[in-house]
Amino acid sequence: MAKMSSDTIWELAAAEVRSQESGAGEEDGGETVCERSVFLMGSKTGGKTSILLRCLERDEPPKPTLALEYTFGRRAKGHNTPKDIAHLWELGGGTSLSDLVQIPITPNSIRSLSVVLVLDLSKPNALWGTMEKLLTAAQAHVEKIFSEAQKSKPGGKRQKAAHPAARVLPKDYPDRELISPFPVPLLIIGSKYDLFQDFDSEKKKVIRKTLRFLAHYYAASLIFTSIKSESLMSKTKSFFSHLAFGLDRGKTVSCDSGKPLIIPAGSDSFSQIGAPPLTDIDITSLHAKNPKDLWKKVYERVFPSESHIEQRELKDPAKYPQYSEPQIDAMRAQKDQELEQYKRNAAKSWKELQLET
């Protein structure tokens, strides 16, 4: 994506919403409008759009996400009061477009940003790779923004931003000294639970325990869901609304085997999760550098990584069937042929060119 000298279209859209809502607030007595940002990313075709639409109660068919898409949600605090705004970003393409995290993660959004990572439970071989690449990209950019803000402080109060450690966990947070909290609130959603239920019990155990470990390691909330289950979607909406509008996420906790996981951040512990499921694996042969690396090696023994499939370059969106325009496509094909002919002629001319000595 080419770098623009002015604000991006998404920033302009967000500014327009803020302008309209702040105006409404003044008319209603000047009450403050609370704005939050939620960034959704995750498995390609993992159901991110469907989950988002259900959480926003929008009755419309989901469409494939092209690159990065922006929308917003509003919720009134009470009668005749201005509505809070949630700026919602969705990253498409799985891990192939991870560089675009820099668009929704900005110095302005970082103060109220949350991340939602949607992992497709029906494709366990791509699960760890998807999680690792996307969280690494997002975390690196968050910390870059914090670092730049800290450097600017001595020169004046140009930008007030918290240090990466600003997300301070309670002193009684389980395993507080052993985990590595994600720098902003994180929700991990295991999607397509209906398909996951048909897996072999031992494989389900590995996936469940691994995701519990990762969620606790990052101080994240974790929930398994399916758009085919009204009950699970209702609980998922509660978690989403907590991030988007600050509402109560509920007190339901489910770690039971055979049931979908519902674990708010801070409700689990390494002692409850237990050791990695080392079935027929000699732990000393894995040569793990740290606990997270150990869990990764055990997980990928059971589900060999297919991340290389996910990391392929995204094909030209202009060739996607859902965006077909016969007349335009025909003209494009003609221009492509003319371009190729020009390249061949140019190459031939250079070969025939004789330089004077």
Write up what this structure looks like:
The chain has 357 residues and is an alpha/beta fold. The chain is 38% helix and 13% strand. The protein has helices spanning 9-27, 48-55, 127-152, 193-196, 201-217, 230-245, 270-273, 291-302, 307-310, 326-352; strands at 35-42, 68-76, 83-91, 113-120, 186-191, 221-224, 262-263. The protein has a seven-stranded mixed beta sheet with strand order 2-3-1-4-5-6-7, sandwiched between helices. A hairpin with a 6-residue loop joins strand 2 and strand 3 (83-91). Helix 5 (201-217) packs antiparallel against helix 8. The chain is globular, with a radius of gyration of 24 Å. 32% of the residues are buried. Mean pLDDT is 83; it is low at 1-6, 23-30, 156-165 and 308-314.
Lay out the secondary structure.
Layout: H1 9-27, E1 35-42, H2 48-55, E2 68-76, E3 83-91, E4 113-120, H3 127-152, E5 186-191, H4 193-196, H5 201-217, E6 221-224, H6 230-245, E7 262-263, H7 270-273, H8 291-302, H9 307-310, H10 326-352
Parallel strand pairs: 1-3, 1-4, 4-5, 5-6
Antiparallel strand pairs: 2-3, 6-7
* Count of alpha/pi helices: 10
Strand content: 5-15%
Helix content: 25-40%
Sequence of secondary-structure elements? HEHEEEHEHHEHEHHHH
Distance between the termini: 43 Å
What is the subunit arrangement here? single chain
User: Going across the major beta sheet, what is the strand order?
Assistant: 2-3-1-4-5-6-7
> What is the overall silhouette?
globular
Low-confidence segments, ≥5 residues, pLDDT <50?
1-6, 23-30, 156-165, 308-314
